[in-house]
Amino acid sequence: MVLGSAPSSLHSSVYDALFVHGLDGVLITSAYGCVLGANGRACELLGRTEVELVGLGPDGVVDRRDPRWREALGIRARDGAFRGVLRLRRGDGSTFPAEVTTAPFADGGSPRAYVSFRDVSTAEAEAARAEATTRTAAEVIDSLEAISDMYIGVDADWRMTYINAQAEARLGLARDEVVGEDIWARFPALVGTPFEQTYRQVARTGRSATLEARYDEADLWCEARVYPLRRGGIAVYFRDISERRASEQERERLLTAERAARAAAERAQRDLAHRATHDELTGLLSRAGLLQEVDRVLAGRPEARLTVAFLDLDRFKLVNDSLGHGAGDRLLSEFARRLAALAGPADPVARFGGDEFVVVLVDRSAEEAGRFAQEVIEASREPVEVGARLLVPVSVGLATAPGPADLDVLLREADAALYRAKDTGRERAVWFDEQMHVDSVNRVAIENDLRHALDRDELLVEYQPAFDLRVERICHVEALVRWRHPVRGLVGPQEFIPVAEETGLIHRIGELVLARAVEQAGRWAHVPDLRVWVNVAPQQLVDREFPARLAARLDRAGLPAHRLGIEVTESALVACSPAGEVLEGIRALGVAIAIDDFGTGYSSLARLGEFPVDVIKVDRSFVHDLGTPRGEALVAGIVTLARAIGAHVIAEGVETLPQLTALSALGVDSASGYLLARPSAPGHLPLTIPTEASFRWRTGLHPAVARVPGTTASSTRR
Predict the structure, then answer these.
(1) So which residues are the signal peptide here (predicted)?
(2) What are the CA-CA distances from residue 613 to residues 172, 202, 547, 568 (Å)?
């Protein structure tokens, strides 16, 4: 239908719909571009009133800088219409893009044109934004695919929105399979783990977080960085840190090992330092530790008064030998505990070795030190349970310094006082005095002179016979050592043998006496059944090689073993644990064994059966008691015991004829003493009974002994 032929009402409706109420701006222009009319929308878009627009030429509404206008007018003239995007000018001079449709028409024979346009700046912007968004999204995806981290995007409903290729490959997934799925349903192993806790925390708080954890399903140690998204949801970047974790664990293991090694080294150093200054058994200070501690005390208090208490457990060796070293160790530990409890906190307490202890009392008066010593003695009388209830008393030597203290001097003085305490009855405390100093100096002098005497061959051996009370002959000769001092003259063994035993010189002396006795016994080979006896010190019985050396010596001298006898004291048997083994070795050679000074040791009868014994020598103290019921009963008991074990009995120290008569009547086999013969050099020794006229028969003697000397004398012997 042609609009021109339409009824006027329809013409009016079309006009209103397209021009008056149209959504697009409409301009009616002349053939030359002057505006003849404008609808309301055109005025709104161009920012002018219709009055302002009417009469404006093309330059009033067209942006002449847009070269497409010229092309548009050419196209309209050629094709009869144009449609495209051109720029128009607003009343304020600004321009905007518009989608323009224009075509010419005739109005009553006058050429006219209409221009219909709409603002496309908003659509263009949206398109540009959409393009930019698309481009940005592509760039983001490129970035997510290019990074080395694995990535998973999750929306506010916990549906996965994206997963990059690295995550696909490491987790063994396909993107198309998981995008859109609920993350907790797809990865149920995450539930209840630090991953879930962190993801939900970030979604709830909107604050990013980082965690390191292990995802067992993928055998993956990972570091996850979780970020909140503006539209809701989270972005999870995670990387495999297994190698780093292994490296860190190895480094931590090495650091831990290094710290442990360092700590062990420090502990070992402290332990070494502690062991260097402390006794391992009791935990008390050692000798070296005591010296250090006293030096520390004196460094802080140079004028401190020091008193040294030197302690020794009486007869402690008996505990070791009878109950074993374990019991002895427990006894020492208990005594050390009691001693430390009695000492003051500032008084160093040390174990000097064996059963010797030292306490250094700091700034104590003589009365306090004496009271302390008595407390220690009383404490030692309390029984100790070591598998048996033991009472092991203690002897104490005390020494103090009136002026600046010299610990070495105090130790020597206290040690000397301790020996005096033992010599005078044990279980007592004795203070050092000047006489002890004199004795100490004398012992030192004796030691020095004795060393020179051994080098200069000043020691000699004399022999004392034992007369058989049953036959008229001498069967036993005892070798006795003497010292011919160049200044002091003849020195008895009672003066230098104790020093030799303390200093270890007894080994050299013992070997010297043994060598000479073996040689002399060889020279007496013509005397029937004569046996030479040699004293052996306790220290020699500790040496397990002693029997072998003795055998070699007998072999070199060509002396039958039965012509030699070894004398040991009963106390030596108790003191020396290896004594039984050594004596068995000596007895196996055929050398006889005698117990000297029998009855003066400890546990005599109980231990006698443990050792091989050929001869029992009755101590001179029992001989002196003869004439009393007790003395004769003791000797009779010893004879009975000897008969029971098949041993010969020799009585020593016989000085009177009544003693000799009583011994013979009691069944003693042999006797020696000054009544019968004094010790002498081998050339002056009587090997048969003298026949001088002064000898006469005495009743009660063995019939074979017809004559004895009539004088008395005192005897000294080793």
Answers:
(1) none
(2) 95, 98, 16, 10
Pick from 309, 463, 414: nearest CA to 372: 309
CA separation for the pair 350, 290 (Å, rounded): 6
Pairing of strands 356-362, 306-313: antiparallel
431's CB contacts (< 8 A; 6+ apart) are 366, 370, 398, 399, 417
C-beta of residue 593 within 8 angstroms of C-beta of residue 550: no
Q: What's the order of all strands across the beta sheet hosting 306-313? A: 349-353, 356-362, 306-313, 394-400, 429-431
Instruction: Kindly give the interhelix angle for 325-342 and 366-380, rounded to the nearest 10 degrees.
Output: 150
CA–CA distance, 602 with 579 (Å, rounded to integer): 15
pLDDT tens string 42-98: 999 999 998 888 878 777 888 888 888 888 888 988 988 999 999 999 988 899 999
The residue to which tokens 């002895």 are assigned: 328
Whole-angstrom CA distances from 479 to 348, 527, 566 are 48, 16, 10
Give the 3-state secondary structure of 168-207. HHHHCCCHHHHCCCEHHHHCHHHCCCHHHHHHHHHHHHCC
479 pLDDT more than 80: yes
pTM of the predicted model, to two decimals?
0.50
Q: Using alpha carbons, list the distances in angstroms from residue 619 to 495, 585, 631, 660.
A: 20, 26, 11, 14
The candidate with the shortest Cα–Cα distance to 541, out of 482, 586, 596, is: 586
- Give, as one character, the DSSP assignment of residue 472: S
* Alpha-carbon 600 to chain mean position: 49
Task: For residue 516, give the amino acid letter.
Answer: R
Between CA 293 and CA 347 the distance in angstroms is: 9
Q: Quick check: helix, strand or coil at residue 310?
A: strand
- What are the start-end ranges of the H helices in 487-592? 493-503, 506-523, 538-541, 546-557, 570-575, 579-589
* Tokens describing residue 432: 């050092």
Task: Tell me the two tokens of residue 406.
Answer: 């010299």
Q: In this structure, what token pair is assigned to residue 54?
A: 């009417």
DSSP secondary structure string, 582-637?
HHHHHHHHT-EEEEEEETSSSSHHHHHTTS--SEEEEPHHHHHTTTSHHHHHHHHH
| Consecutive H or E run containing 537 | none
387 contacts: CB under 8 Å, gap ≥ 6:
323, 327, 330
Please report the domains of the chain, with CATH numbers, ordered by start residue: 15-124 (3.30.450.20), 147-245 (3.30.450.20), 282-432 (3.30.70.270), 453-692 (3.20.20.450)
Q: How confident is the model at residue 694 (pLDDT cuts 50, 70, 90)?
A: very low
pLDDT (tens digit, 9 = 90+) per residue, 274-331? 888 898 888 999 998 999 999 898 888 888 889 999 999 887 777 776 678 888 888 8
